[in-house]
Amino acid sequence: MKRALALIDSKMNQAKGWLRDPNAPPGDAGEQAVRQIIDEAGKVGELCAGKERKDILGTCKTLGQMTDQVADLRARGQGATPAAMQKAQQVSQGLDLLTAKVENAARKLEALTNSKQAIEKKKKAAQSWLADPNGGPEGEENIRALLAEAKKIAELCEDPKDREDILRSLGEIAALTAKLSDLRKQGKGDTPEARALAKQIATSLQNLQNKVNRAVANSRPVKAAVNMEGKVEQAQRWIDNPSVDDRGVGQAAIRGLVAEGRRLANSMMGPFRQDMLARCDRVEQLAGQLAELAARGEGDTPQARAVAAQLQEALKDLKSKMQEAMTQEVSDVFSDTTTPIKLLAVAATAPLDAPNREEVFEDRAANFETHAARLGATAEKAAAVGAANKATVEGIQAAVKTSRELTPQVVSAARIMLRNPGNQAAHEHFETMKNQWIDNVEKMTGLVDEAIDTRSLLDASEEAIKKDIDKCKVAMANMQPQMLVAGATSIARRANRILLVAKREVENSEDPKFREAVKNASDELSKTISPMVLEAKAVAGNISDPALQKGFLDSGYRILGAVAKVREAFQPPEPEFPPPPPDLEHLRVTDEAATTPNPPLLREQSTSQPHLSQERMIRFPRNLRLARW
């Protein structure tokens, strides 16, 4: 909660700056800041319940749609029009409103938690006082303080029943406590009446604590499973039996899936974002219809079954698209994890006479922080959307937490080194922090790879390399060497990422055939990367040379072919079926009886009545042959 509020606060100026500038391009860091604020606010909304939850999530959804409209207008060159500027101003005002709602929700949740903990502490002291007939006035003060905390919780309750139950108990306990206190002041604390009162108050305090715990629980949503498969399973159980009370788990799982889908949409562009949001809206709409039918006692009607079937199909479709989008994002974001921190190190050690030394450093520091934030956000999505088990999910969450703690420390250490050139202690401190950050990100990368399907990641990487090659073709056609270098660099990084994934799979596999196949394919891929980089440098130096262009494209396609072979090595082997039967048209069936005469009849003399010439005749089946008697 505190981290979400801190992140919202840190991104607000950047977001407001993008909204104020009608010429700010769509998709840059300013727009990403707006979307990060909406995303973090949504996470807080997921921790709330009732009207507060609905209000925050509804505002997030509206602001997301309005941000899409602003970005679309700017992409069409209409950012300076009155309509676009008005829409941007509305988003800016909406961010202020959303922040206020999130802060109020955070304060409320914190107050509920603090009061609940205070009641637990005060109750122990109160019970000790009740058990001691000669207890002093401080025990009564503890009970009064406990009742005051319970009243705070009652005032924060949205459910009137919870509120009334708590307030009723407060009145009863206060009256009983006052009566017991009077008896003790009169020296009658050890009488049967006083002891009965003390016992009654102790029971009432326990009941009050139970009511308070229930009210606090009702103020928070039911927790869904930690990963997508678990959420889908919970949702499916509710869809199959919407009339059965599952304490809201199924609907909470669907809300969680929809929220993750919208977070994924925030990192997508244009029509892809709209498509994902439309799928989320569809699931949300159908889930609402089914919940409404179930609430009216119509969960088993034909109409409810029809809605459930539509919801099941929509949920399956959303899950597939989310996994596809998440895999593509992992392929893009984790293709290069360390270049920004290396560039930060270069900027921090720049000579004193380097031009724009401070400005370059600040730019590199901002890029590093943005990159680290993207890594963490993408890793969290992989944990939520991938097929990870609980241990992997918790590992990713721990690695993300460590990354968020280390990132500002790395920047601080780099800044100290910048301002103290040649200082050995500053240099060693930065190197230590940098290595810790890189080690943690490598751990995070491995866990993310565990959370997603390897073949899907390889497919996404292969498609991305194809797009990079297409960009390089455009760069050569337009004589843009920088664009060519960027595309070639991306190809090399993606290929190296594939090698890392393949190496990890080989290390974790016990199948010798699989290991050999993947290793051989990886070795071939490894041999293609350096030649492509050299070809790219040659073309960048003379981009109009057709022969150099062809050489570069050939090397790019060799990488693509080698990537395909790595992917094929991960395909499951074809099952070994028995050979097919002969062609029935050429199969001739003959009746052996047509060519083989029937065996002769065997005659057996009757031994029981020798005077009779009676015979028993035995006929064998037509095709039974007797080799030997």
Q: Can you identify the CATH class of the largest domain?
A: Mainly Alpha
Order of helices and strands: HHHHHHHHHHHHHHHHHHHHEE
The profile of the biggest β sheet is: 2 strands, antiparallel
Distance between the termini: 94 Å
Number of domains: 4
Mean pLDDT: 85
Strand content: under 5%
Poorly predicted sequence stretches spanning 5 or more consecutive residues? 591-596, 601-629
Which geometry do the CA atoms define? elongated
Question: Count of DSSP E strands?
Answer: 2
Note the total helix count. Answer: 20
CATH architecture of the largest domain: Up-down Bundle
Report Rg: 37 Å
The computed structural class is mainly alpha
In CATH, the topology of the largest domain is named Four Helix Bundle (Hemerythrin (Met), subunit A)
Tell me the helix content.
Answer: over 70%
CATH superfamily heading of the largest domain: Vinculin, Vh2 four-helix bundle
Read across the widest sheet, the strand sequence of neighbours is 1-2
Describe the model.
By secondary structure, the chain is mainly α. The chain has 4 domains: 1-221, Four Helix Bundle (Hemerythrin (Met), subunit A), CATH 1.20.120; 224-332, Four Helix Bundle (Hemerythrin (Met), subunit A), CATH 1.20.120; 334-452, Vinculin, Vh2 four-helix bundle (Four Helix Bundle (Hemerythrin (Met), subunit A)); 454-571, Alpha-catenin/vinculin-like (Four Helix Bundle (Hemerythrin (Met), subunit A)), CATH 1.20.120. It is 77% helix and 1% strand. The protein has helices spanning 2-20, 29-46, 50-75, 82-131, 137-156, 160-185, 192-218, 228-240, 249-266, 270-295, 302-333, 339-348, 357-385, 390-419, 424-451, 454-477, 481-508, 512-541, 546-569, 592-595; strands at 602-605, 615-618. The protein has a two-stranded antiparallel ribbon with strand order 1-2. Mean pLDDT is 85; it is low at 591-596 and 601-629.
